[in-house]
């Protein structure tokens, strides 16, 4: 289940994010989970909490690109709870409608993901994003509204 996220959700999950997500934030810009999740939440045009029963297991949102107003920068940060099969199935069932909401605001979505963040890479492919190799340890993903 998805619902609009709150600042309390940031507080609740900042210390329990997946190791791959924490590592990715640190390698990208030296950010801590609290700063990375807080920045993403506060700068997003849309942000949702992903829940399993009453527990927040992740957050997903989109921030505006700092140079191009028609480009959105989607992000997702999760706890290990997202990896439980039941939660993964529910996440996949619902996530495309939230990606479509992002496309309604931004016709192009793009960001980068660390090459070792295998769960995120599989999810991005499933959502229809194109993956583009770079000369770094990060892979760009991009999608366009159809």
What does this structure look like?
The protein has 146 residues and is an alpha+beta fold. The protein has a single domain (2-106), classed as Aminopeptidase, CATH 3.40.630. The chain contains 5 helices and 7 strands. Strands 1-2-3-4-5-7-6 form a 7-stranded mixed sheet, sandwiched between helices. Strand 6 (130-132) and strand 7 form a beta hairpin. The longest helix is centred in the middle third of the chain and has 21 residues, at 85-105. The radius of gyration is 14 Å and the shape is globular.
Biggest sheet, spatial arrangement of strands: 1-2-3-4-5-7-6
Q: The CATH topology is what? A: Aminopeptidase
Order of helices and strands: EHHHEEEHEHEE
The poorly predicted ranges are: none
Which of globular, elongated, flat, extended, rod-shaped describes the shape?
A: globular
CATH class, named Alpha Beta
Condensed summary:
This protein has 146 residues and is α+β, with helices and mostly antiparallel strands. The protein has helices at 7-13, 19-29, 33-43, 85-105, 118-126, and strands at residues 2-4, 46-52, 55-64, 71-78, 108-114, 130-132, 138-144.
Distinctive features:
alpha+beta, 5 helices, 146 residues, 7-stranded mixed β-sheet, Aminopeptidase
Q: Helices, strands, pairings?
A:
Elements: E1 2-4, H1 7-13, H2 19-29, H3 33-43, E2 46-52, E3 55-64, E4 71-78, H4 85-105, E5 108-114, H5 118-126, E6 130-132, E7 138-144
Parallel strand pairs: 4-5
Antiparallel strand pairs: 1-2, 2-3, 3-4, 5-7, 6-7
